[in-house]
Amino acid sequence: MLRDKRQEYLVALMLVGPFVLIYGALFVWPTIQMAMLSFTKAPLIGTGDWVGWDNYVKILSHKLFHQAFWNTAYFVLLTVIPNTLISLVIALAVNRLKGPVQGFVLACFFLPYILPVSVVFLTWNWIIDVQYGLVQGFVALFNGGKPISLTRTIPLFMPTVAFVTIWWTMGFNILLFIAGLRNISPEIYEAASLDSAGRWRQFQRITWPLIWPVTALVLTIQLIAQLKIFDQVYLFSIGGRQDATITLVQYVYKLAFQQNKGGEAATAAMLLFGMIIILSVLQYQLLRARGEK
Amino acid sequence: MSAEAIPNRDAMVAARSRGDGPIDMIGLVLTVITILVALGSFFPIYWAVITSIKPDGEVISGSNSLIPNRVVFDSYIHIWNNTNIGIWYINSMVTSLIITALVIVSSAGCAYALSQLDFPGRRVIYVLILACFMVPMQALIVNHFVLMAQFKLLNTWAGIILPQLIVPVVIIVYKQFFDSVPKEFREAAQMDSAGHLKILFRIYLPMNWGVTASLAIITFIGAWNSFLWPFLAATGEATMTVPVGITQVKDAYGIVYGKLMASAVVAGLPVAVVYLIFQRRVTQAIMLSAGVKG
Predict the structure, then answer these.
(1) CATH class of the domain at A59-292
(2) CA distance B257 to chain A (A)
(3) Does residue B11 carry a pLDDT above 50?
(4) ipTM entry
(5) Domain of B18?
(6) Which one of A13, A115, A176, A280 makes the best mutation probe of the B interface by having the most chain B beta carbons within 10 Å?
(7) Structural domain boundaries of chain A?
């Protein structure tokens, strides 16, 4: 049967058209514009002189950029590995359960993940409220009986927001881990229990090595997601000393929308962009290695 | 398992490997701990709901009772009367539904073309999708804002919607599913001289309704929850979405806690309900988008 090639091209064009239009206008074009903008001294709206690499030199030596970089790195450190480990432990615990109990327990852990960030923020801001917050009774035990603001005390800010973030996002990781655990054939465990291997040895010898690919996936997804952190950190820092707890995306936001420095904001965005691309390429390689197995 | 039955060896082995033998105290303790931790994880949500239905006096009395002495809906009435939450709701609903519809339709079409048709430029599209996974949308906020400002779309539904249409994972998932539809279906349809559009809408999409439902639900939840872009694109109270609005407006609240919790409950309700109804679909969509077979 002879197919009309031209008609096939036409149909393909029609089907791919909306995608090309959307991604061209809202992804390719803004990305090119961002790269161009990063070499100019433009305000947020409008044009400015071409300044070459000046913005890059300026941003890379800007104290606040360093602050934002290290704050983000600190936040990544506080969330990524703890979140992954906690999620794995919970997944192991949930995976033991059966039937409706498992469904109920899983829903309890997963429900926070589907809530909007502002709901998470408002809820926890109320729980940690200095005057009437539920946790202040507990906090007072460590502070000589006095309440203390967990988000206005700078050293406590990141750990508090990291804790809330772990509570909020672990449901996602738990799901991935449970899927991974279910893929481990029960026969392997049966063989192990005939050899009367204990729980810990079973975990060490069977579960951990077999779940490792999922662990690596969870770690990289978390790493990239937390580098882009903005929402929670911004919301919890409203009204506080925002510069002390600034993160990279927040730094871009500040330059662009609070200081009206479009060019420098684009430069900071390009730097963030570079970091994430490097990590994404690593993640992609990892996923591909997994897929080929 | 009845106590009288004499367990045979296989059953015992099976019971051990499942970790729930008749005298498995450790297992029982673990189960109880797991349930307690799960309830602890749920508690903040419970606390928000409870606070929202307590009278203001009880909220700040410091009694912190886990069950309200008196249930009142004053906080809900107050936010309804004193904020634009009704308008924010309409904005959120309209933008989220349009985003979902556009993402699903454009992705299904593109995925069908990539999966079933031979045309020049396929490689370019693959590279584009791959690039999209790597470029953080957060880095593009500046130029999305500039672009929307140029077209005078700030503070409009279109301005909120457009940059959120970039969801490459939907195309990838669709393509995987279209690839696995046996070629015979298409060939048989083409024998009957059915066009590609008909094949897509009559065969490929109906065969993958489950996936479509999962992807639509997760896209809707994502759109409803998105914060950073709507926060930038909508600066006027009349164009804000619910998640943005409830963090921006606290005027005229008096004792704020109950009212803030009421607004949080109202904002989280649609996605919570969608999740509770479609739990399996949400789970499936998350697995698919993370590249893990569920």
Answers:
(1) mainly alpha
(2) 7
(3) no
(4) 0.90
(5) 1-49
(6) A115
(7) 59-292
